[in-house]
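tool_call predict_complex ligand=magnesium ion
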Amino acid sequence: MTETLERLGLVPFFTQQLADAGMLQDRVGRVVSVQRSNSTVFSGSGERVVELSSALRQLPAIGRPTVGDWVILDESLSRIDQVLERKSLFKRMGVGGSNEIQPIAANIDILFIVTSCNEEFKESRLERYLALCAEAGATPVIILTKADLAADVDDYVRRARTTQAGVAVEIADARDPNTMAGVRCWIDSSSTVALVGSSGVGKSTLLNTLAGQSLTATGEIREDDKKGRHTTTHRELHMLPSGGLVIDVPGMRELRVADISQSIPAVFDDIEQLAAQCKFDDCKHEAEPGCAVLRALEEDRIDSRRLSNYRKLLRENALATATLAEKRAQGRDFAKVVRQAKNIKHRNGES
Ligand SMILES: Nc1nc2c(ncn2[C@@H]2O[C@H](COP(=O)(O)OP(=O)(O)OP(=O)(O)O)[C@@H](O)[C@H]2O)c(=O)[nH]1
Ligand SMILES: [Mg+2]
Ligand SMILES: [Zn+2]
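tool_result ok
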């Protein structure tokens, strides 16, 4: 049984959190997928669909179980009672006007940022993923698929490498197992990899090729604009027959950042180092005198696209972080009102 849990990626970071080692026998499991109100959990005794405890149901999305989470079930094995502390969490600001952080994949070691060697490739999108990856606490690897279709793959590799100093870049034809040696190097038997990127770049194709069998559906892209058709519709954790775990994530249309002020320097180290030399500490690098960033731009030492994306991410992050802070404060105020109302009831002898 523990062997199964180890194959699911159970490492000491999680077992150390269990007050009672006896729980390991059957009550610990890993979330494979999340439906509207249920989750599918894999445990030592197999896969089961479970509910959430009422306490968990009341939490904001970030506190509820997400794909990749380790959880503790109740004694009847029908409900998730607790989510273990996460080793890492890839998340984004919710879509469709939602001002809530949306967890995408928990407890991942490596993030495969998948992009293809065609019109889909954009440095600015990669930088956005890289900032969220640094925030998540995972190691990023840029995977360039459709290398078989590109006339000059080296040029894509060169461009990908400019997005973050030292970032790993691997190329592959995601359909062909003979081109996957570089990709495979990043997967070992207890590690979890998440596949993220736009629809149609070949994330599910990559997963199937790594597994050596068809674990999930893939779909043709549109001929006219090379965009995918959103074939994968839900996030799911898959076990590779050769060992290792892969979370396939549907193509993301929108990737809004939040809470990334600590991780922007990891991606934009070149610009941050220049910014440290600006005359004014609060320099916005727009028109200020003595701005080392603008000087580097004039002298062609940094790229104007990269600088404007850096500014854009900073602005977007500031806005999102302020919205989240306001929302959290409202939550606190609301909790205070509820507490006060309870106290009044209590004093009046009501229950
Ligand atoms: N030539 C070529 N085609 C590829 C490669 N990778 C994927 N494809 C094709 O691209 C199409 C889209 O692949 P999927 O694996 O479904 O893409 P996805 O990233 O999972 O897309 P979503 O599930 O919509 O997010 C399929 O027709 C694949 O056969 C590659 O490296 N080379
Ligand atoms: Mg897919
Ligand atoms: Zn400046």
